Amino acid sequence: MGKLSARAAAGAALWLVMTPLGAGWAQAESSAQALTSAEMSGQEPGASLSYDLARFVQEAMRRNKKLSIEALDRRLADEAVTSTRGRFEPTLTMEGSLEESMTPNNVEQATYRSYLTHYYERYKKLSAEVATTLPSGAEVSVESTLDQVHNNLQTDGSADADGEYETFLGITFTQPLLKGAGPDATLSSERIAKQDAKIAYQKFRLRMMGILHKAITAYWKLRHAQDALALRQASTVLARKLLADGRARSESGKLAHTGLLPLLVGVSQRQAQQSVAEQALAAARSEVAAALFLPFEGGEPPQVVATEPLDLSKSEKPNVRISLEKALSHRPEILSARHVIDREKIRVVYLKNQDLPQLDLSASFGVNGLGYSSERSYNTAFHDGNEAWTLGVTFSTPLYGGIEEKSALASGRITKRKALLELRATEVEITSEIHAMARQVQSAAEQLRLMRRIETSHEKQWRADLAEHAAGMSDYARLLEQEALLINARENALQHQLRYRQAVLGLMLAEGALLTRLGVEEESAYARAMEQLRDFQQGEDRDEQEQLMQDLNEMSRQKREARTDG
Questions:
Q1: Region 186-195: what's the mean pLDDT?
Q2: Closest CA to 70 of 526, 543, 557, 539
């Protein structure tokens, strides 16, 4: 409230005490203050949900279903990282077979098969192999085989029953020396998947920031609508009191009947303006209810009350340099672009490796055993010196230099260059956005200061007119006119408070520091989103189980009826 001169203050005080109209104005003022206090404490009549800003942010994060969808994308990216590690998982392969044959011998075969007319053979094979890939690119396998051979060439009596057993134990090692060699080739899929997971996380952060920005904007609109309605309600109460005072003066002959016309028009105008304010409040509540995913009962929005004051205790002066530093280190778009560059660098290194010729070093070592039992066969493998080993190299290269590989490498380099340019473009856009938002905050703060000065001037004039009216020096029409100017000035100040709040919120969003400034823990938000998904899945499972039980009960009922009819 502006300061009054001593004369105006004394006149206003005298008028407030001595006349019913003064009592009406005091009642209107106290009614408006009581309404504002009730909203601030969350005790508005009919209101069931009151939120300060901190609690509102928590509810917006907890209730928003769209955030769970983004959390799924991040979960998929994390699973993709785990999937790439399966390349190095050891694989166990086991095989068993039984073969039996009776074939006639030709002359040549009979000469080295003891002149038998027929050759009989029964062959049992058992094998087991463990194979894996090492980060160096080497393929390693350990193999063990046990074959039981029984045929009609075995004339030794000890071989007649079970035949002979052949054993082999060995290890094979193949190491790429050029193409496919080293962690840059073997771990590239995992490294790329990790960068994709980081990109998905930044998209999750960006979605969170967008959701919170929209929700908080709706919250401040609600607070503005509440305060605007309180102003209009107080104005309507005052106009009615002025009308009542005018009628009393008209009945006593102190005021002509035509003097009531401005009062009647003033009441109607203020009732219409109050109705518009009520509609704006209902629309603001609908927007907040949508942000919180609150149900509408009977087609009406929930009675949500914003208790956080719209007016800031002090204005913030933006620092463009600090805001730019925050944006370059916190904005999801910047961080995501950097992860894309890192991913493409990894891809280019891998493609360079794939452009090399294929040169592999192969080595194997094994032992062979033979005996009339499996135990004897294994013993001879380790003690009789029946060893076998190989060592060799394999070289291959495309005759035209590797058209496919070189094309893929060129594409990878172009994609990397594109990612670098996109990062530069994003930095330029964000720099421009920071400058624009900083100017917007400064402009909103300056306009708010001007609106407050105008409000103070109108308030001083209103107090002076109030005192003049108490002294009989002013009519009702002028009083209503000055009160309307004061209310409009207060509404303009409220509107600019809202614009300043929105500008500050926009600057925090541009800095990428919205989550930090609001105290939102990103990992906790992700955990809550995943918990919502689990609860949703459990609910679906319960519904499926209930439906299954209903179907089974219906089938049982139909069978009973069929038996009864039979």
A1: 94
A2: 526
